[in-house]
């Protein structure tokens, strides 16, 4: 195996932090925003809470949490990527969310100023070499009775119905690229076990996803954007070539094929796990 195909630390985020990738993250955040809002409320987030968003990136989950906790609560987002935090700050300013702040730091060393009522995170643990250890550390910042909740994908559940050949190939490129660099494409289904290993008792887990169809769906662009971001990894690991993928026309071809075949695209399952700190 290529030396680059080892599980990366969060300093080796495989998707990078280029401007185009930050734009994709914002688009993805909107795509999954309603599910994340629903999950956070199920986990127990409510008005007045003080929340730490671990690995906040461009701020999508922080923004959702800020709307839930309201101005009587606070949200602190932490991430090591200064470029992402700058964008997150601008987005919060645009919405006049004065109760949100962002801090640059690594999750392995960051220390909040005071205990919090909840630690949250979305699509973060995939890039962490030892999720239970990080969960244990973050849970130590939470007041007794507070919440730890994280969301990760089960990428194995993505498919098209009836099978659309190009959609299936694109899904396969994405899954195989993650697999070849040593990342767990079914991490979402292992969250409960990781919570228990971290000493978080009786975790609850729920899975949901988006099913997209029709000419106006944003799903085709979502798939093409992920393939675009992963293209260097896809080529380096021998999954496919740029010529084979034909990125400039990919979204349009996905749309044409799915509509022509009357298909639906089942996106990766977004799994949420939460537990109370005893």
Structure in words:
- It contains 9 helices and 10 strands.
- The protein has 278 residues and is α/β, with parallel strands linked by helices.
- The protein has a single domain, classed as Rossmann fold (3-Layer(aba) Sandwich), CATH 3.40.50.
- A 7-stranded mixed beta sheet has the order 3-2-1-4-5-10-7, with helices on both faces. Strands 6-9-8 form a 3-stranded antiparallel beta sheet, with helices on one face.
- Helix 5 (165-180) crosses helix 7 (219-236).
H-E order: HEHEHEEHEEHHEEHHHEE
Spatial strand order of the main sheet: 3-2-1-4-5-10-7
Q: Main sheet?
A: 7 strands, mixed
Report the average pLDDT across residues. 92
Question: Which fold name corresponds to the CATH topology?
Answer: Rossmann fold
- Give the helix tally: 9
Name the beta content range. 15-25%
Which class do the helix and strand fractions yield?
alpha/beta
Give the total of domains.
1
Query: Which term fits the overall shape?
Result: globular
Any low-confidence stretches, pLDDT <50, length ≥5? 1-17
How many beta-strand runs?
10
- In helices, the fraction of residues equals 40-55%
Query: Termini separation (Å)?
Result: 42 Å
The CATH architecture can be given as: 3-Layer(aba) Sandwich
- The H-level CATH homologous superfamily, spelled out, is Vaccinia Virus protein VP39
CATH class assignment: Alpha Beta
Roughly how many Å is the radius of gyration? 19 Å
